[in-house]
Design goal:
Elements: H1 10-16, H2 22-33, E1 41-45, H3 53-56, E2 62-67, H4 70-74, E3 82-86, E4 102-106, H5 114-124, E5 131-137, E6 141-142, H6 146-158, H7 167-171, E7 183-189, E8 208-212, H8 213-220, H9 224-232, H10 238-249, E9 258-262, E10 265-271
Parallel strand pairs: 1-2, 1-4, 2-3, 4-5
Antiparallel strand pairs: 5-10, 6-9, 7-10, 8-9
Helix pairs in contact: 1-8, 6-10, 8-10
């Protein structure tokens, strides 16, 4: 994930952001294989600290990760076949026409200039076989805890004025964006988020994980709106207050108590024309 005008702590981002699920990668590769897509070169744009890149490198000969934030790239996980670069997520000028097998964007596409991105993606992706995979998630819910999730909603509402307007794209599961490709497949979970019935079936949730309350605290502090809020109110930490209220509601005192989370998530797959 990448963002403008935000000072992320790359080490915390790397430690506490969840990994993308096997289900997401399985859907991506199945779509790519339908037209015998190759696995030579993939660009992971908005790579962050390499959460997707380290999975993609298991399938592709070469992975090129791009992110606008140096602190993200400085904390990225290295592998022999991954190259990281600081730069705009829409700039593929170093790649030749019709040369890239896949472009992925994980929870970063809402920050991009979409017109520029699509123009470049169409140029560099291989015709007929090149795959574009856009996936992203929003604030998670804690499974089977409606009272707790109301507290989370209150925090989201509190941070609304500190949230970049572009975040609305991922909040609405990217449905506000027109993807200029004929061959597309959409996946959205949980089902309650698929308000326009565009999702194809999945075998499970696209994004879910269990974590301790302490790790949940750290995860919530990687949100861009949280950083913006704390710049104005450095002595009023809304995430600490949220975690305190959640623990009271659940009647727990141990910050190592484990909760199960599910993230509203969208995966959009498209094949170059």
């Amino acid at each position: 994930m990448s963002a403008s005008n935000v000072s992320y702590q790359g080490d915390a981002y790397s430690k506490f952001r969840p990994s993308y699920s096997d289900e997401i990668y399985s859907l991506i590769y199945n779509f790519h294989d339908q037209e015998n897509g190759e696995y030579n070169l993939v660009i992971d744009s908005g790579t962050g600290t390499g959460q997707a890149a380290i999975e993609l490198c298991k399938k592709f000969k070469s992975v090129h990760g791009i992110d606008t934030l140096p602190e993200q790239i400085n904390n990225a996980t290295s592998r022999d076949n991954i190259t990281y670069q600081v730069g705009p997520g829409e700039d593929f000028s170093q790649f030749q026409n019709n040369s890239v097998d896949m472009i992925t964007v994980g929870t970063a596409f809402h920050w991009f200039d979409h017109e520029k991105f699509f123009k470049e993606a169409k140029r560099v992706l291989k015709h007929k076989t090149g795959t574009l995979a856009i996936f992203g998630y929003y604030f998670p819910v804690i499974s089977n805890e409606p009272k707790v999730n109301e507290l989370v909603k209150q925090l989201v509402d509190k941070l609304e004025k500190y949230t970049n307007p572009k975040v609305r794209f991922v909040r609405n599961m990217y449905r506000d964006i027109t993807f200029p490709f004929k061959d597309q497949a959409w996946y959205i979970t949980p089902k309650s988020e698929d308000t326009t019935n565009i999702s194809q079936p999945t075998t499970g949730s696209l994004m879910e994980a269990s974590m301790t309350m302490e790790n949940y605290r750290h995860y919530m502090k990687t949100a861009s709106a949280y950083f913006n809020y704390m710049e104005d109110y450095p002595n009023d930490d809304p995430v600490d207050k949220l975690v305190e209220d959640i623990m009271k509601t659940l009647n727990i005192t141990d910050n190592q108590h484990v909760v199960h989370l599910e993230w509203p998530t969208a995966l959009i797959l498209a094949r170059n024309d």
